[in-house]
Design goal:
The chain is mostly helical. The protein is built from 9 helices and 7 strands, in the order E-E-E-H-H-E-E-H-H-H-H-H-E-E-H-H.
């Protein structure tokens, strides 16, 4: 490294330091910068070798800090890898479960759907509220409702939004009367929310 015309050799953990430029960058007075640096030196964090133009600052225990950072980085990478593995495992488990529900859907409805791709994300959202048994009961209940019996597909069943906004089709199929349409049910929900 060069400071002016002078070549300076720096070891790992060393840097060239000038109070004036540090004060400008940090928005501090020169005396405040000097006091902080002296405090760090007195607390044995730094060694400072000064000239009339600059100082070479050496961070004490630099190698030890690097080992700690390396261990920390390694631990963080391991934790991230483990979290990703856990997410992948959970995702695979959920996908197998969704395929099992789809198979049951096909048995109940007499259909032959093969893919969960179009509705898998919504299925996972519903699973935070409903058990597999409740979802299967909702599928069985599609026969009780004319509209559902004529139009239901897995994508429609696991929809979480429709033209009216948020919807919960599983709740509708588990708790509604057969003579009501989804829009009647949604209007009831809006009325209840407005009353509260």
């Amino acid at each position: 490294m060069y400071v002016g015309n002078q070549k300076i050799h720096l070891n790992p953990g060393q840097f060239v330091f000038g109070r004036l430029s540090a004060g400008e960058e940090l928005g501090m007075s020169n005396s405040t910068v000097r006091n902080w640096m002296m405090s760090l030196k007195q607390d044995s964090y730094l060694d400072i070798k000064s000239t009339n133009k600059y100082s070479v600052v050496s961070i004490k225990n630099w190698e030890e800090y690097q080992k700690q950072d390396s261990k920390k980085d390694s631990r963080i990478k391991t934790e991230k890898k483990q979290n990703n593995t856990n997410k992948n495992d959970k995702n695979e488990k959920n996908k197998k479960e969704a395929l099992s529900v789809l198979e049951k859907y096909n048995q109940i409805r007499g259909t032959a759907y093969k893919s969960v791709n179009g509705w898998f994300g919504n299925y996972c959202k519903y699973r935070t509220t409903y058990s597999v048994e409740e979802i299967i009961k909702a599928i069985e209940n599609t026969y009780k409702f004319k509209w559902w019996n004529e139009t239901v597909t897995p994508t429609i069943l696991f929809r979480t939004k429709n033209r009216g906004g948020e919807c919960d089709n599983i709740d509708f199929l588990l708790n509604s009367r057969p003579d009501r349409s989804p829009s009647d049910y949604q209007l009831d929900l809006v009325r209840i929310q407005n009353d509260n």
